[in-house]
Every structure is written in C-alpha cells, then in structure tokens.
Known about the structure:
The protein is of the alpha/beta class and 212 residues long. It has helices at residues 17-30, 38-41, 48-55, 62-76, 90-99, 112-122, 148-159, 173-181, 196-199; strands at 4-7, 14-15, 85-86, 103-108, 131-133, 166-170, 185-189, 204-206. The strands form two sheets. Strands 5-4-1-6-7-8 form a six-stranded parallel beta sheet.
Amino acid sequence: xxxxxxxxxxxxxxxxxxxxxxxxxxxxxxxxxxxxxxxxxxxxxxxxxxxxxxxxxxxxxxxxxxxxxxxxxxxxxxxxxxxxxxxxxxxxxxxxxxxxxxxxxxxxxxxxxxxxxxxxxxxxxxxxxxxxxxxxxxxxxxxxxxxxxxxxxxxxxxxxxxxxxxxxxxxxxxxxxxxxxxxxxxxxxxxxxxxxxxxxxxxxxxxxxxxx
Length: 212
C-alpha cells in the first residue's frame, strides 16, 4: 500500500457544485458582470482564476479577478454550504487507509478559508492530517496562488513524500495531470464532475469508494 494519499475535495469528497454555482452567480451580479453563457462554460474543479478566464477570455483583467475572488468568498464562506453533500462511503475509505498506516491529506484548488469551513462542518479535521489549498501561500509574493501541479509538488516536498509512494485521488483531468507531472499514480473517482474520457488520464478508476 502507498504511504501518502492525497484527496481532491470538490467532486471527490463532496458534491459541492450547487453552493459554488450559487456563489459565482451572486458574485457576478454584485459586480454587474453580464455572463449569459455561465451555465454552458462553468465546470467545477478548476481554480477561480481559470474559470474567470474561461468566462471572460477577452475581457478579464487582474482587477476583475480580484473583485470576483472577494465577492465569491463573501457569499461562499458564510452561507453554511446548505447544498453540499458528502459522497457516501468516501470518508469511510479514508478512515480505513489511515487506520492501515497511510498519511491522508486534502489537496484542492479550493481557497483555504472555504476548505477549512467545509472541513469544520463535516468533521474532516478528525480524519485528514492537513488541508493544502491553491491559495495557502498567496500572501508570499515569491509563491502566490499555485496551480495544482505546483501545489502537489510543494506538498510532496513538505511531507518528504516520494512520488512512487504517493497517490492522488480526484475526479477531473486537473487532478490526473497534476499527479502525472509529479510522477504519482492517480485514482479517478466515477462519482465526481469529470467526464469518462478524462478518467482515461488516471492510472485507474474507482467505481465505488471501496475501490480507492
């Protein structure tokens, strides 16, 4: 068994899309940003920056990105995640891995504040050793907000985890590409937001939590 297991959050541990979409639409409304194609373009998984660039490919600016980030956070972090639901059986599998001696952590594109608030609601802090997020070093100008491959690389370094002894568990190609770029095996979960063709990029697929 691998010693280090890294879990994506959105679409892997929980179905978070309803609350994220609601916060996105509220943020765009706050800022007066018309985006009639939002439902066609938006996907859960990529970072807020990536989604902003997809929604406004020709007009986005750093100032727009910062404004969206702030408004989104105000709506998302304070609503209590009423639409979010854990996927049944996933946390049981995480507990089993931990009981067998594995190190388990969350590695997500989610912002740190939102990830911590969600972990507190669902009691994940009792299971996962740490939460690593794309923006956890955003106040350090030498690091900033990290893309998932770079975030995963920092996690490996911090934990002194060998890639050959580590696994990334996720639901979209962002997770599998991050793993591949760092020399890790990856497990695609069949219940998330990724499409079937994305799962082909993973080392293997788990149809049910027990197969992770």
